[in-house]
Amino acid sequence: MTTYQNGFSALADPTRREIFERVARRPRPVGELAEGLPVSRPAVSQHLRVLREAGLVVPTRDGSRRLYRVDPQGVAGMRSYLDRFWTDALAAFEDAARAEEDR
Amino acid sequence: MTQTTDAVTRSVLVPLEPGAAFELFTDRFGDWWPKDSHHIADADAAEVFLEARPGGRWYERGGDGAECDWGHVVEVDRPNRILLAWQLTPEWKFDPSEDATTHVEVTFNAEENGTRVTLTHSGFEVHGEPGAAMRESVGGEGGWASLMEIYKNAA
């Protein structure tokens, strides 16, 4: 559950969202992610750390390079949160409807 | 396979006529909604409301009396269908702007043993390109493996 909230909170920042989108297109190193962004490279590293803690991206090794790629489990977690949310809600509705029938 | 921006769909068969099922779902929303676990404000939701008319409010009222909107009613076709605008951001904050709105459609179809109630929550792509970008990403290497991992953990 926290993954869903952390995940979307992490994406509330426009620069961070841009970085995430770049990572989502294909795995990239920090330097490439920072290109053309109005923030410093250390700032990009900081954003990546937040995205990583939110379970949205993971660093991987490609030879000597460190590439960031999307962590599919983290993103899918946001959606599966709502999946559970509605499953629980409808189960409660079903119970109420059955109680209604018995009345 | 499941994609991040795909709609969430759930359905249940309830032993009521469509009219009664619709009334219970909407007019008596507060009678069944699991408000202890499914509320927005920090305070426990004392009451929840769904006004089943176009433009009607969908909101909760906390024990402290403060009201917190969830969204509003877009279309009503009693007792067949109701379309709701869900105006909560992923951080569970009310945001009435168009680009933060997702939709919840609930349909009521008569079946032999009652009414099939189907809920579809869609439009997650409004929460940013990440969803769309993700669609491409999960289609590639690692997508299925990761989803199966989630499935296994949930089972």
Question: What topology emerges from the helices and strands here?
Answer:
The complex is a heterodimer of chains A (103) and B (155).
Chain A: H1 2-10, H2 14-25, H3 30-34, H4 41-53, E1 57-62, E2 65-70, H5 72-102
Antiparallel strand pairs in A: 1-2
Chain B: E1 8-14, H1 18-25, H2 29-32, E2 45-50, E3 57-62, E4 67-77, E5 81-86, E6 102-111, E7 114-122, H3 129-139, H4 143-154
Antiparallel strand pairs in B: 1-7, 2-3, 3-4, 4-5, 5-6, 6-7
Describe this structure in words.
The complex is a heterodimer of chains A (103) and B (155). Chain A is mostly helical and 103 residues long. Chain A has a single domain, classed as Arc Repressor Mutant, subunit A (Orthogonal Bundle), CATH 1.10.10.10. Chain A is built from 5 helices and 2 strands. Chain A has helices at 2-10, 14-25, 30-34, 41-53, 72-102; strands spanning 57-62, 65-70. A two-stranded antiparallel sheet of chain A has the order 1-2. In chain A, helix 2 packs across helix 4 (41-53). Chain B has 4 helices and 7 strands, in the order βααββββββαα. The radius of gyration of chain B is 17 Å and the shape is globular. Chain B has helices at 18-25, 29-32, 129-139, 143-154, and strands at 8-14, 45-50, 57-62, 67-77, 81-86, 102-111, 114-122. The model of chain B is unreliable at 129-155 (pLDDT under 50). Chain B has a single domain, classed as START domain (Alpha-D-Glucose-1,6-Bisphosphate, Chain A, domain 4, 2-Layer Sandwich). Chain B starts with 7 loop residues before the first strand and ends with a helix. Chain B has 155 residues and is α+β, with helices and mostly antiparallel strands. Chain A binds chain B through residues 4-5, 7-9, 11-12, 17, 20-21, 24-25, 56, 70-73, 75-80, 82-83, 85-98, 100-101, and chain B through 2, 4-6, 8, 10-12, 14-16, 20-21, 24-25, 31-34, 37-38, 89-92, 117, 119, 121, 124, 127-130, 133-134, 136-138, 142-143, 146-147, 149-150, 154.
